[in-house]
Inverse folding.
């Protein structure tokens, strides 16, 4: 058995350009206009031309057995496409991978038996007209389990995700957090050494999201020993729960290490400003200035919020930034130096916000 749960070798996925009107010049014009407009709005997501879209670009990755591994990046970075290739839902255009020691291209059936995939909204495949228990029994039987074994595994899965007291209810009455737990329960019906989780907490309220993340970390990863690969664009999710994190941007891995080591890539200081009476044009002028190399802003409509700034000139630079803001009518209520986050690291490496 290989030392790695997952190992990829220049794995690439390229989607071919599709023209739905190949024989009509007038319609071609409108289609070209539409795709050009989309590309101009989303140019930070894909490498796009009229031939193809490179969603995952020559990714080399190693995930250790029993590791909680994070794929962090903005929407469109290629995270979901990579997960789908590792699960054989998509096949790579070039390159390959080993999953649980099996060749992705030559041993697809063994790869499929080694992984479970849970996606955001995975509960949508459940029938609301029957109970949660019977929904799960149906899926267990579809996975090839005998009836008695299916019932036993369903009871175990419901207990693991804390839904045993809801077993006779319809999935339609569950909260969003419970529905996502139900999707995870479906993934637990058949044990696999690798769990692929694609944005499992998107759309959940903070309490439900934390409960799902905590369950994945302590029950699946620590207690059951499963290798977990989690895709997310929430930096705090990756920072708090992942042993290592790969940062993706435009289909490529630009950094991979533990959260603490990634944060050491930061140069200079990160300053946090709490502000009132901020106008959008002031922030844009600060972005264009030489005193702040990178900044992340979080403001309400009334101009109240926070500004994280990566200073370009070391200590003392916060005073120049403070003066810049106050001269333009901003009220600075607090300035302090803070520890960098993975979002700061992402901006440092790419110049873009998550």
């Amino acid at each position: 058995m290989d030392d790695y749960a997952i190992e990829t070798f220049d794995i690439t996925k390229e989607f071919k350009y599709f023209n739905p009107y190949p024989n009509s010049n007038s319609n071609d014009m409108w289609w070209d206009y539409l795709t050009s407009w989309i590309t101009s709005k989303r140019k930070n997501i894909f490498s796009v031309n009229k031939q193809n879209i490179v969603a995952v670009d020559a990714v080399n990755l190693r995930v250790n057995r029993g590791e909680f591994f994070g794929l962090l990046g903005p929407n469109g970075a290629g995270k979901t496409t990579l997960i789908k290739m590792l699960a054989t839902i998509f096949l790579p255009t070039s390159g390959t991978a080993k999953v649980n020691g099996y060749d992705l291209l030559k041993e697809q059936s063994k790869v499929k038996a080694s992984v479970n995939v849970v996606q955001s909204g995975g509960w949508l495949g459940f029938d609301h007209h029957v109970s949660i228990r019977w929904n799960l029994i149906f899926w267990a039987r579809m996975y090839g389990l005998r009836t008695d074994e299916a019932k036993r595994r369903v009871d175990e899965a419901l207990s693991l995700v804390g839904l045993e007291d809801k077993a006779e209810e319809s999935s339609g009455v569950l909260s969003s957090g419970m529905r996502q737990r139900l999707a995870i329960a479906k993934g637990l019906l058949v044990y696999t050494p690798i769990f692929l989780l694609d944005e499992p907490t998107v759309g959940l309220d903070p309490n439900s999201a934390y409960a799902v993340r905590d369950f994945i970390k302590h029950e699946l990863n620590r207690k059951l020993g499963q290798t977990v690969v989690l895709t997310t664009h929430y930096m705090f999710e990756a920072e708090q729960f992942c042993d290592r994190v790969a940062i993706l941007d435009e289909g490529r891995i630009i950094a991979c290490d533990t959260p603490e080591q990634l944060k050491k890539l930061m140069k200079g200081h990160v300053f946090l400003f709490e502000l009132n009476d901020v106008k959008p044009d002031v922030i844009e002028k600060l972005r264009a200035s030489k005193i702040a190399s990178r900044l992340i802003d979080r403001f309400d409509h009334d101009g109240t919020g926070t500004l994280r700034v990566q200073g370009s000139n070391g200590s003392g630079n916060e005073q120049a930034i403070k003066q810049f803001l106050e001269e333009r009518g901003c009220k600075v209520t607090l300035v302090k130096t803070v520890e960098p986050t993975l979002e700061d690291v992402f901006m440092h490496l790419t110049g873009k916000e998550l």
In short: The radius of gyration is 23 Å. The chain is about 35% helix and 30% strand. Residues 206-223 form the longest helix (18 residues).
